[in-house]
Design a protein that fits this description.
four-stranded antiparallel beta sheet, HIT family, subunit A, alpha+beta, 1 helix, about 20% strand
């Protein structure tokens, strides 16, 4: 798995967790261990970078905002996250 900065950040802190195995979206990812490892890795990465308040986002499908069709999870932080999103 890779954790990289988003090239089009939507918040002051915007990282992407990307599994090396290809899944076009969350709908195709059926391995709970893989998904759990991604979430734990993001949590550890945020802690290492002293980011305490953040939002995790997974887009599935064009209407939901998915533009890259390889599973990835966004970690957004550094500004207030309002509800509802979008």
């Amino acid at each position: 798995m890779l954790i990289i900065q988003d090239i089009h950040p939507q918040a002051p802190v915007h990282w992407l967790a990307i599994p090396r195995a290809h899944f076009s979206s969350i709908a195709e990812a059926s391995d709970p261990n893989l998904l759990g490892r991604i979430l734990v890795s993001l949590s550890e990465f945020a802690r290492e970078h002293q980011v305490t308040d953040y939002r995790l986002v997974i887009n599935r499908g064009r209407e939901a905002g998915q533009t890259v069709f390889h599973l990835h999870i966004h970690l957004l932080a550094g500004r207030p996250m309002h509800w509802p999103p979008g």
